[in-house]
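ok so dumb question maybe but i'm new to this and my supervisor (M.) told me to 'just get the structure for Aldo/keto reductase' and walked off. so i did the thing. is this what she meant?? sequence i used:
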Amino acid sequence: MQKVILNNGVEMPILGFGVWQIPDADECEQAVYDALMAGYRLIDTAAAYENEEAVGRAIKRSGVPRGEIFITTKLWIQDAGYESTKKAFAKSLERLQLDYLDLYLIHQPFGDVYSSWRAMEELYRESKIKAIGVSNFEPDRLVDLILHNEITPAVNQVETHPFFQQVEAAQVMKEFNIRHEAWGPLAQGKNNIFQNDILVSIAEKHHKSVAQVIIRWFAQRGVVAIPKSTHKERINENFNIFDFELSQEDMNAIATMDTKKSLIPSKRNPEVVKRFVSWKFDI
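this is what came out, is it supposed to look like this??
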């Protein structure tokens, strides 16, 4: 498995398995188990996904040594704040049946993120977390957090796919040595991505699927990707991207697909912020 080096020296697999929108416990456990059996070693979950317990069971069931697996989970808005962050972290560890986390992220840039970050810095120094980072932070919010705290985030996990390539945001991350991680790397199937003429043409040339081409594109950009599937054959297929390489011509062709627009409502919209903050979970 190809790995990247985070800004604190920790190694992170460049390809992982995401479990967003797999709320069914049995289905989630089986999907994570299948992913681990296929060779994935990065598993990404979140308190707000309400499936940490299922992920923990799958890890235990797999028999894969803990030291070989890189586990990420996230702090939801309702738990923002210094004391509440520490309590939320402890609950996540308990649900996952783990003694430490490899990566802990602030899930959304809302609430008292600065107090949360100070709590996470302490947990990091106590070796309860190997790396800390953020998710869904746009460049201005990311830089503000960096300039007002001691530890720079190791990762920023943001929506990234061929239609929204985050080139400008990636430049800011590179400036501060923050690893770019993509959620929704397959655009959640939107915009007929699997029938896109450019991607289909490249896939046919390499005798690969469109999904494999996209995931390979991420790897060659040095972007960590966490595709999700509940189908074993697709889980295996998405992992099989290390036996071919896209040409510069292929990479240039995919670059032309960038619309520079998100496929989700802007978090700078006040109504969207209100909606996010109103979402409460039994965590």
